[in-house]
Amino acid sequence: MRRQQQSVGPRSGPPSRRLKRVALAAGNYVNVADGVSLTLHRLVEGLERRGIDVAVVAPGGDHPDLRRAPQMIPVPSVGLPIQRGYRLALGLNGKTVDAIDRFDPQVVHVATPDLAGWMTARYARRRELPLVGTYHTNFAAYLRYWGRVPSVFTSLVWELTRRFYRGFDEVYVPTHSFGEELVSRGVLRDYAVLERGVDRQQFHPRYRSSRWRRSHGIAADELVVLFCARIVWEKGLRTLVRAMNWLNHRGPPHRCVIVGDGDQKDWLEKQLPHAIFTGFLTGRDLANAYASADLFVYPSTTDTFGNVTLEAMASGLPVVGARAPGTRTLVEDGRSGVLVEPDNSRALAEAASRLLTNGGRRRHLGAGALRRARHFRWPEIVGRFADDLEDVLSRAGPLTPDRAQ
To answer: The pTM is what?
Structure first.
């Protein structure tokens, strides 16, 4: 039976065993600060605060904004030429397997369906350990942005995804809408929802800053349209360019601000010469950027959740976004933003134009976005995830004496 509650939580059954050790296999943990790695850091830190040790099995790296886990087990990897900063895990070698054995996990959590993920899942099955997965990235949807890819490759990705998740004790998806898509494609028969949270101490309307605006040449009375994401094709850059150029020529006066970095940044700068590019931001600078804008536009159709959308909403911004699985779960059309058909740049631009010219409506939707963001709290989400892992452990059958301690 499919689990339809809004977030994970324990199910009825035998009393939970004490969970002490979890092994997490991830393709990116300390290489690139994206939505997936930041989410995994939140989960690991939350489990550690509950006294649960986590060994992270992942490629090595040293990103300045990502903390290495107390227990890192490196896997062999190579750099990806089409995704700067990312690395492809090549699987588990003997040293990696020995390190996992010494850690002696009670539950194995796989976050990436790469070669190391496949081998870690096989490791769990061979040792009869509970196996869970978190689904983060819609790789099949990415293919359409990576050039002229024959449809047979998309079909192959879905088939490999189906095979990968067979036999998992639990698979967590970020939203019901994406979970239903995976069910319809035969990837999953059952799923649990593990939402993402937002740090409302970091992202808040109080960080609106006239100083930040002046530093980027933005006048006090100018309206700002913000886009924030990794600047890569799969974020809907072509739709964004068409919409922003339409808005620049026909819409009300405004400034377009692009926050982020990525392989297509040079291309985007050439396509939007009128826009302000801040580069990659973190901390208070990022909070200032969100809160100092007036409207958030997000054309991406590939996000399974959309952390940046939630950060914008927590900053009090109404969202104009694509009616896609991630965004349509977060944004209530007409209450916290406006949803338009995917890949429709004209609709995106016209919706943004209407909100720029109607201050009352814009502020009303911004207030709705702020209320909506208050439902996504990391402590409760991580707490329910930890409880659910203990429930999975309890349903796994008797443990050997050394693992029952």
So the answer is: 0.85
